[in-house]
Amino acid sequence: MTDTTPRVRFAPSPTGLLHVGNARTALYNWLFARRVGGTFILRIEDTDLERSEARYETQLIKDLRWLGLDWDEGPGLAAGEPEMGSFGPYRQSKRLAIYAEHTERLLAEGNAYRCFCTTEELEVERARAVAEHGPQVYSGRCRALQSAEIEKNLAAGKPFSVRLKIGTEPLRFHDLVHGPVEFAAEAVSDPILVRSATSISAGVPVYNYVVTIDDALMQITHVIRGDDHISNTPRQVAIYQAFGWKVPEFAHLSTILGADRERLSKRHGATSISTFRKMGYLPEALVNYLALLGWGAEDGKTETFTLEELTRAFSLERVTPSPAIFDFDKLNWLNRHYLKECNTDRVLALSLPFFLNEVPQLHLTKEGLVAGSRHSEWFERLIQLLLPYVDHLDQLPVKAAPIFAFDPASARANEENAAILAVGSARTVLTELAARVRVHSGPVTPEVFKGWMKEIKAATGVKGEELFHPVRIALTGAHSGPVFDKLIPLIEDGATLGLGILGICDRIERFAGV
Questions:
Q1: Which 3 state secondary structure label does DSSP give 341?
Q2: Do the beta carbons of residue 188 and residue 163 sit within 8 Å?
Q3: Quick one: DSSP state of residue 184?
Q4: What does the alpha-carbon distance between residue 53 and residue 115 come to, in Å, rounded to a whole number?
Q5: Taking Cα atoms as reference points, which of 238, 259, 218, 227 lies closest to residue 85?
Q6: Nearest alpha carbon to residue 215 among 237, 185, 234
Q7: I need a surface site. Which of 12, 206, 300, 426 has the fewest CB within 10 A?
Q8: From CA 216, how far away is CA 281, in angstroms rounded?
């Protein structure tokens, strides 16, 4: 590696599902690396043994792959595959000996010290600081312990933590998003590097310590992460300085907020990538939207990008420090855009799982319908008919429900429908329609239906929404939906295919009888 070869990393903890904030971090790191010909590393920060679970790591890898994000170094691209790269291990739980070795070095060089203060003693210090309205930082009293006292404590098996010695100079770093940042040394105090134990190897190293060692040893040149880590950065800068390592460039990404301008959480709706996938969002739509959460095109207007186009357009210079608002309407708009562009075979394959067990008449299996069969052709027409009316694919069965299960009583009971049907012209239109149905034999084609509607319009003088809305309610239970030219043959063909679907005449007769 040379100084001109950027190396970035995405370092999640496998303690939960991958959410949109972390996914955006992964995406920005990936885009930056691919844009400049650098290296993208996936590192698993699994030192929280109580909360880390293999299933979360497996899901994480699946989600990244689904988004189209691969990595050059790190765990295998699929579960069980060997690690890639020469800077491993890429799981922190496998690097504990490395951290212990570096702790010994800091102690030997006098840049860290053992702190024998108990939890109770530290709490007394904290309470005193609160009472005196002073900063709640460690007093540093163990800094001055003599060698003899340290050896005595060690011989007695007294637990100790390891703390970093912070100097008096302010801790500074340059942030590519926020600009120059400075923290006073006294605000950082002497941070703990290894939690209290009777030996260094038994102590648990803290996040700020291990992430800095890993970034340095893996030669990370740019640390791109959420701005909730800004307060961690001065401690990490101090660790870099203590080891004499070069401090990387930092780029802290803005917080993602919900519509109420509070930090995005489950109460705002879906937040995990796996949930969006289960809802039937396309990965290209989600990637496109995540990219726009804190970054914008150079022309200030373009909003739709393929992953390849994003790679060519992305730059950290255009990342804004302002909080990003997660707008579900905007995401849905993008998803509709990509659904419209999606080829038929892919849409059918993605739609099929949402109908499994939902529409037993179709006799669907995970393998789908028999290619070229009448049922398969009908299902394709169904999806093409309904696709413009959904934001994500899991809405398809709901949109399709009136076609399969017509319930005139529920249609009349709907408040909006009831208001439309209460108008005198609605009763007139439906009476005229029922009269034509009763003398008709054979299937109802779009041409037959159009003829009826023209006759009713001429006979009653009713037109526009007042003419069509009552009829649509009588056929589908809703006053809006797909155009009649496509809806009529779909219903009629579904009835003849033995799918348990009521034909047009039966629907109107049944509705008129309620």
A1: helix
A2: no
A3: -
A4: 32
A5: 218
A6: 237
A7: 300
A8: 38
Q: What angle do CA 69, 72, 73 make, to 5 degrees?
A: 115
Distance CA 207, CA 11 (A): 11
Give the C-alpha separation, 227 to 217, whole Å. 23
Q: What is the mean pLDDT of residues 236-248?
A: 97
Contact (CB, 8 A) for 284 and 334: no
Cα radius of gyration (the chain): 32
In sequence order, which residues have a C-beta less than 8 Å from that of residue 356 and are 6 or more positions away? 364, 365, 366
| Alpha helices for 195-302 (secondary structure H) | 207-217, 233-243, 273-279, 283-291
87 has pLDDT over 90: yes
Q: Which of 253, 274, 298 is the last residue of a domain?
A: 253
Structural domain contains residue 365: no
Task: Choose among 436, 382, 268, 270: nearest CA to 390.
Answer: 382
CA distance 9 to 32: 11
447: Cα within 13 Å, side-chain hemisphere: 2
Please give the structure tokens belonging to residue 213: 């060692």
Say if 434 falls within a structural domain. Answer: yes
State the total domains in the chain. Answer: 2
Domain CATH code at residue 499? 1.10.10.350
Label residue 504 by pLDDT band (50, 70, 90).
Answer: very high
| Amino acid occupying residue 398 | V
Give dist(CA 379, CA 449) in Å, integer: 23
Q: Does some domain include residue 259?
A: no
Q: Tell me the HSE value of 48 on the side-chain side, using a 13 A CA sphere.
A: 12
The residue among 228, 253, 278 that closes a domain is 253
Residue 309: predicted pLDDT:
96
In a domain, 203, yes or no: yes
Burial of 182 (0-12, 13-18, 19+ CB in 10 A): exposed
pLDDT 10s digits, 1-25:
445 689 999 999 999 999 999 999 9
Nearest-angstrom CA–CA distance, 83 and 66:
19
Q: Tokens in use for 139?
A: 């007093």
Reported as a single tens digit per residue, the pLDDT across 130-163 is 887 777 788 888 998 999 999 999 999 999 999 9
Boundaries of domain holding 461:
406-513
Strand, coil or helix: what is 368? coil
- Note the pTM of the prediction, 2 decimals: 0.91
As given in the structure block, the two tokens for residue 401 are 């429900």
Catalytic residues: 266
Residues 6+ apart with CB under 8 A from 409: 514
